[in-house]
Amino acid sequence: MKILASLTNKEGADIFLDKVKDHVEMVYASSGTKKFLEGKGVKCTGIETFTGFAEMLDGRVKTLHPAIFGGILAKDSKEHMDQLKEKNFVAFDVVMCNLYDFAGHMEGTLDEKVENIDIGGVSLIRAAAKNFGRVAILTDPSDYDLAADSILKHGEITLDLRKKLSLKAFRLTASYDAMISSNLSEEFGQDSGSGVIIPGRGVELRYGENPDQKGFLHEMNNYGKISIFHGKEMSYNNYMDASSAIETAEEFDEPFAVVIKHNTPCGAAVGKTHSEALLKAIDADRESAYGSVICINGIVDDESCSILKGMFVEVLIARGFTDSAKELLYKRKNIRLATYQGHGPSTRLRSVFNGILEQDFVSAAPKEITPVVNEKKEFLPDLLFAWKIVAHCRSNAIVLASHGATVGIGAGQTSRVQAAKIAAERAGDKAKGSVMASDAYLPFADNVDVASSSGISAIIQPGGSIRDQDVIDACSRQGISMYFTGKRVFLH
Fold first, then answer.
1. pTM (predicted TM-score)
2. Distance CA 451, CA 424 (A)
3. What is the CA radius of gyration of the chain?
């Protein structure tokens, strides 16, 4: 068996080659890989010894040579093997290759990004994957044990396994190119065009939304990163809730906390400190906060830990945690702790019966807020706060807020007035003097009637209904201030 190795991630390569050494005639390696393997006691031959071609252009060109690709792409036929023999080329049986770490340089300079776009590696991987009938492609160290077991049992990597490795390789190169395209589109300030983004390797979750469904996480390095450092593994629903929590938190620059339950906020607040925001968000609806996912757009400290004492929280996610906060929280076995970084995708993809829907992701913040009746500027901070929260509640949605915190939320209703009634009922006495946000226009004045009977002082909504004047007139009669945003923030 002849093996070609050109690796960026060299982890485990020496262990694999040592396991199968009795089945290996020769390992041919690029310079960096050769140095690593020889340092681990693995005998190698440099690829330049049979190509007669030394690396050039600071390593940009090292494997792009007919001797390499002929040895990979040759079929297992007399005609192809005779041609290799005539040229003194080697027929490779296994190619070990992975790619430059573009993902690790996406926050770097343009020069750093460009230098970490792999060319030769992608070509090697695609060539070997194409010729799966004869050649095995190993792109992931996690597959080395599987390949070694096959070689030790059968003397080769079986065709069935070669097929699986081939598909994995094509998924890798597709994901890699999509990641580069997306990142450079942002760098160049250009639209890369619509299309499905190919996800990276999927990690199987315990199950999907329900126990009888399979669930997978396909991480996208160019989106963002959630790092779990304590507690049991995240579930499908945990990731859904965590994503909603982070997206809501990203709307705010000031200290903010949000409590998510079943993929919609049940409490949210801003504060002078993150711990103050956390307390206000929990107090907004302590009953619903049980078994929730909580996100803070800053650092979790000791005071935040004391606020959470005695609460059952599924996931606590933040930009970071102090060391002392970690020590306090580590004592709780049933809480998952995670940090997040990045800002998420610029588009939203969703599978539907006949394909995939794609849309831009935009901030909820309106470009302007227009007063239409009973203007009172003192309501503006709470109105804007409520508007940002209602944009992350399932439609139809109504949010009531006061002093930088939600006091009542009605979400996911087929009737807007019903959503308003639920929000008012959840708020109780706290509805008095609060403000109301509606994610779409108020179609009838009955919503104003609910607001009035609950003591609500101001309403913010998109406007645009054929009955806008009826709604405005109702606010005027009831002494309620109303503002239009001119934009709808449905969340289906």
1. 0.71
2. 8
3. 29
Q: Tell which residue, 229, 241, 226, has the closest CA to residue 291.
A: 241
Model pLDDT for residues 21-33, shown as the tens digit of each residue:
999 889 998 888 9
- Residue 67's SS3 state is helix
The top-level CATH class assigned to 224-342 is alpha beta
Q: What is the mean pLDDT of the chain?
A: 90
Find how far residue 359's CA is from the centre of its chain: 16
How many residues are listed for the chain in this entry? 492
Q: Which amino acid, 426? A: R
In CATH terms, are 2-187 and 224-342 the same topology?
Answer: no
Evaluate if residue 194 carries a pLDDT over 50: no
Q: Which two tokens stand for residue 125?
A: 């991987």
CA 20/CA 398 separation, integer angstroms: 64
Give the list of residues 6+ apart from residue 216 with CB closer than 8 angstroms, or none.
202, 203, 204, 205
Distance from C-alpha of 487 to C-alpha of 465, rounded to nearest angstrom = 12
- DSSP annotation of 433 reads T
CATH class of domain segment(s) 2-187: alpha beta
Residue with tokens 């001797």: 67
* Residue 62 contacts residue 47 (beta carbons within 8 Å): yes
Which backbone phi and psi does 46 adopt, to 5 degrees?
-70, 140
458 exposed, middle or buried (CB, 10 Å; 0-12, 13-18, 19+)? buried
Residue 81 CA, distance from chain mean position: 46
pLDDT over threshold 90, residue 299:
yes
User: 334 vs 189, 314, 324, CA distance in Å?
Assistant: 44, 7, 19
Q: Which residues are catalytic?
A: 130, 262
The token pair at 310 is 């005695």
The strands making up 136-138's β-sheet, listed across from edge to edge, are 45-46, 26-29, 2-6, 94-97, 136-138
CA gap 61, 70 in Å, rounded? 17
Quick: pLDDT tens for 370-420.
999 999 999 999 999 999 999 999 999 999 999 999 999 999 999 999 999
- Residue 424: alpha-carbon gap to chain centroid: 34
List C-alpha distances in Å: 99 to 176, 182, 222, 229.
Answer: 9, 17, 16, 27
Alpha carbon distances (Å) from 165 to 34, 126, 169, 222? 23, 11, 6, 24
Q: Write down the H helix ranges in 250-395.
A: 274-283, 302-308, 323-330, 380-390
Assigned CATH for 370-484? 3.40.140.20
**36 contacts 10 by C-beta, under 8 angstroms:** yes
CB 419 within 8 A of CB 444: no
* Predicted confidence (pLDDT) per residue in 126-151, tens digit: 999 999 999 999 999 989 999 999 99
**Domain assignments of the chain as residue spans, ordered by start:** 2-187, 224-342, 370-484
